[in-house]
Amino acid sequence: MTRRAGCLGALVFLLLLVLGLLVVVDRVGVGIAEDRVATQVAQRGGLAGPPEVDITGFPFLTQALRGEYRDVRLQLTAEQLGQPAGTHADVSLRGVHVPLSDVLSGSVQQIPVDRVDGTATISYALLAQQLGGDTVLAQEGDGIRVTRRVEVLGTEVPLTATGTVRLEGGDVVIDVGDASAGSLQVPDAVLRRAAGLLDLRYPVPALPFGLQLTSAVPAADGVDVRVEATDTVLSG
What's the whole-model pTM score? Predict the structure, then answer.
């Protein structure tokens, strides 16, 4: 009985050891693959540099053997996107098809992707530059608060206005509504005219992966532009 128990214990230990080794191999494999995918995505997506890549799902090895990755997440900086500072994007490539042999040999010619979705964030500092001066933008509930010193009746006053954010074609549009000049008494007609100086239209630069803009909403750090694409092939 003691001998049997000893054999069983040894078998359990061996199985745990094998499983542990498989987990280690899996994690090492995913790390190598993430580096390779980052390089290929940068080349095929026209990026200025390899992005941070996270291949989700466990185990990784079964995905690699199939040559299909369920969800590959990318964090793209302004530099990688070739866009002005203050822009960044978080993108998920869902259903990425790359044969393991191509990845290992570095002979990937194209990367078919079933669906791409994510968010490109345009910082408030970048948008404020479009209006110039001392303009400051910030989120206010579901809208935007805009502050800037403007000339009203020959005097510079700090103007504060609230507005809405929308997407029109490839442009982020901020339409300003109510405005106030603090404690100064300024005629409403003059305030409305001054508030018109705070309206903003920002053309969103072209994004990689054939991404299309779908909506724009204010967020804590900037305007979040939702993006998506289907049946995309990254090639270059």
Answer: 0.75
